[in-house]
Each structure stands twice: as C-alpha cells, then as structure tokens.
Amino acid sequence: MSERVLGVVMNGVTGRMGYRQHLVRSVLAINAGGGLPLADGERVRLRPVLVGRSERKLADLAARHDIADWTTDLSAALADPANQIYFDAQVTSARVPAVTAAIEAGKHVYVEKPSAESYADAMALAKAADAAGVRHGVVQDKLFLPGLLKLRRLIEGGFFGRILSVRGEFGYWVFEGDWQDAQRPSWNYRTADGGGIVLDMFPHWHYVLEHLFGRVEAVTARAVTHVPERWDERGERYDATADDAAYGIFELAGGIVAQINSSWTTRVFRDELVEFHVDGTEGSAVAGLRRCRFQHRAGTPKPVWNPDLPATEPFRDQWQEVPDNAEFDNGFKAQWELFLRHVLEDGPFPHDLASGARGVALAEAGLRSSAEGRRIVLEETR
Ligand SMILES: NC(=O)c1ccc[n+]([C@@H]2O[C@H](COP(=O)([O-])OP(=O)(O)OC[C@H]3O[C@@H](n4cnc5c(N)ncnc54)[C@H](O)[C@@H]3O)[C@@H](O)[C@H]2O)c1
User: Fold this and answer.
1) Are residues 163 and 287 in the same domain?
2) In which band, very low, low, confident or very high, does the pLDDT at 283 lie, cut at 50, 70 and 90?
3) Range of the structural domain that residue 213 is part of
4) Are residues 101 and 225 in the same domain?
5) Could you tell which of 61, 90, 174, 204 is best to mutate to test the pocket of ligand 1, judged by most ligand atoms within 8 Å of the CB?
C-alpha cells in the first residue's frame, strides 16, 4: 500500500482549540490510526508544522508529541512547497492577515470560526481563495456531533412532517476570575480583542440552522453584557466590554422560527451544555451534543392546564431515545477527514469560506439588531 505525507501548517496550536481538538484529537489522531485511507488505497499521513509566537511553548509542545517541525516564522512555513494546507486556530482578530498570506502562497486553507471579525473581511477571504483556485473550509464542528447527527437522521427520514420551530438553549456560568479562575480566555470578554458571545456563537448557530433546516432570512436579537468586570489570566481586573449573553430569534426559509439563547451567565439545568428542541407536525425531538430524544404524534400526551393541581404526567419519561446505530468519531476529526478528502480526492465539502462568511454576517446582523432595536433581514448570498 502506498503512503503519502502531506505538510500541514498549524497556526494557533498553543491555544485551547488548536491544541486539544485540532492537533491532538484530529491531526495526530489521524496519524495514530495509520493515516487517512483514500479511495484508491493510498494512505495519507499528516506532517504538522507548528507555528506560533512563543518559541518556548512551541518547542515544549513539539517535544511532548515528537513533532519535528515548528517555527515562529509563518512566511518560512508557507514558502515550503511540501506544506500544502494552512490551518488557523489563532484568536479571531489575528486570522485574516495569516489566512490571506496562506492563500497568496497557494495553500489550501482550513480555519476556525469565525473566519473573520467582519462579513466584508470574511467574504474577501472566500473570494481570494476562489480566485487563487485553492480549496477552503471553515470549522463547523457541531454538525458532526452525535446528537446533531441523530437529529439530521430524523430530519432526513421525514420524522418531523412540517418543521415549525427550533428552540436552542446554550450556556453555562463562566467564572469571573476573582475567587475562581475563569474557564475561558479573557479576550472573549473584550470587544477590542474580537470577543463577545454573538461573534462566537452566532456563526455556530448559522451553520447548524443553514445545514439542517434552511437559509436564515432574518434575525432579531438582544445582546447584553450582564457581568461588566472580570479578572484575567494574570489575576488582573478588567472591564468586560463584550456581550456575554444574547437572546435571538432567527427566521428561516419555509417559515421555520428558531429561537436560541446563548449565555456565559447562566447556570445549567439541562442534560447537556447545548440543546435544540425541534417541533414538527408529526413529532418533536430534543438534541444535545450526544443524545437525541423524540416524541411521535402518536405518543403525544394531552395535558390540560390546571395550576391548582400538581403535574401528573411524567413528561420527560414520554420521550424515546434515538439509538446510536453507528460509531461516532470526534467531530473535529470527522470534519478534518472530510476536508482532506475535499483537497485530495475532490470530495464534497459544503463548509467553505462563503458558508463561514454567512455565519459572520449573521453575527454582524445580530449585533446591529440589538444596537438598533429592530429586526434585520439578511441578504441572500451565494
Ligand atoms: N469550534 C469551536 O467550537 C470553537 C470553540 C472555541 C473557540 N473557537 C475559535 O477558535 C479560535 C481560538 O480560540 P481559543 O479558545 O482556542 O483561544 P486561545 O486564547 O486558547 O488560543 C488562541 C491562540 O491564538 C494565538 N494568538 C495569535 N495571536 C494572538 C494574539 N494577538 N493574542 C492572543 N493570542 C494570539 C495564541 O498564541 C493561541 O495559540 C477563535 O477564533 C475561536 O473563535 C472555536
């Protein structure tokens, strides 16, 4: 069996996402499994080239995982023709110049979401990549989670009948950082550094809605900063300028209404950190990260409103579990494999930079809706 080695420049691998999900759980995991098998029988191994700002951190990381190549010089990594793919998981504000340089160097590009801080920049990246003839993609990991794969199975099997609405609940308490360390990086809470829950989460909601239910046509949102002061990684107090909760209504093609709460200032009384409740004429389902439960119209109870009596129906027990019926790999790894097949054997990949840009457009429209107190209609783009 023949084997090929593909150089992948990975920028931002000292960060949370870049390290755990992309380097360890995806790229190194693909190699540990013997490489990616292609349709023609060839196996492709990945040669990560770590790029970052700190020599010490890169050297430590490379040593820990026995990785030969690392550098603080992005241009040098991009100049090597053996490196065909550029991956970016830097802070969002650093993304555009680095991805632009990679496109100019003729690399295929795969980037974390949001692909840029503004729709104009995100769309410019998509157009530049098309013009350069390189393959491009944006991380849309939630679509590859078991819970959402099961939800997709229900949709594609016609379970819901006509889908009426989607209600999403996402969030958990992010500690302020004074008496307990914050569990997310502080840049997330500063607008000037590309932070904010709308810019972080609306791109996720956009691809979930677009790929599972239909085009997002309009948004009405209220973004707020509930906790105005926080403490950073060094224990220093700072003003939290970015929104830490957003309450949004998304109108979809076909009349479906989605309503999603996103919050870093709520406490969890749910089974999972995100849940989507979908109602259709024939049945309903609740999908989380891993599980998906459903209730068919034939099993739907008929509650009668009477506040004088305690609830008699065990409502949660009246739902059934969608079985796994498959083995689910890590969602980030599954999408990496799809992107590699897109680059290497022209496989389908709908998660391109244009799709990513539409996600940024939704975030921008959400912030505008909140600032101006009105509903924003989204322009149709490719
Ligand atoms: N797909 C997802 O579910 C998901 C989840 C969280 C974050 N993200 C995205 O991943 C990206 C990274 O987020 P993270 O949570 O890993 O952040 P992080 O702060 O943990 O990591 C940021 C990385 O960017 C590098 N960097 C480059 N320039 C920088 C600068 N000027 N200031 C600070 N760091 C700089 C850091 O060295 C580090 O490697 C963001 O774009 C974020 O939106 C995606």
Assistant:
1) yes
2) very high
3) 142-328+360-377
4) no
5) 90
- Any domain includes 382: no
Judgement on whether residues 146 and 261 belong to the same structural domain of the protein: yes
* Amino acid at the residue 362: L
Average pLDDT over residues 327-332: 96
Average pLDDT for 88-97:
96
Cα(180) to centroid of ligand 1, in Å? 22
SS (H, E, C) 300-322: CCCCCCCCCCCCCCCHHHHCEEC
Percent of residues, the chain, with pLDDT higher than 90: 97
Q: Phi first, then psi: what are they for 274, rounded to 5°? A: -135, 140
pLDDT at 381 over 80: no
Atom index in ligand 1 nearest the CA of residue 52 equals 37
For residue 57, the ligand 1 atom closest to its alpha carbon is 37
pLDDT at 51: 98
Phi, psi of 222, deg, nearest 5: -130, 115
Based on the domain organization, do 263 and 252 belong to the same domain? Answer: yes
How many structural domains is the chain composed of? 2
Residues 347 and 275 in one domain: no
Note whether 315 and 252 are same-domain residues.
Answer: yes
Contacts of 44 by beta carbon, 8 Å cutoff, 6+ apart: 3, 4, 5, 6, 35, 36, 38, 340, 344
Query: In the prediction, which pLDDT does 382 show?
Result: 59
Residues 70 and 46 sit within 8 Å (Cβ to Cβ): no
Does ligand 1 come within 6 angstroms of the Cβ of 52? yes
Ligand 1 contact, 91 CB (< 6 A): yes
Q: What is the Cα–Cα distance from 216 to 220, expressed in whole angstroms?
A: 11
CA 305/CA 278 separation, integer angstroms: 22
Contacts of 248 (CB under 8 A, 6+ apart): 202, 205, 219, 220, 221, 222, 259, 260, 261, 262, 366
Nearest CA to ligand 1 atom 3: 141
pLDDT at position 3: 87
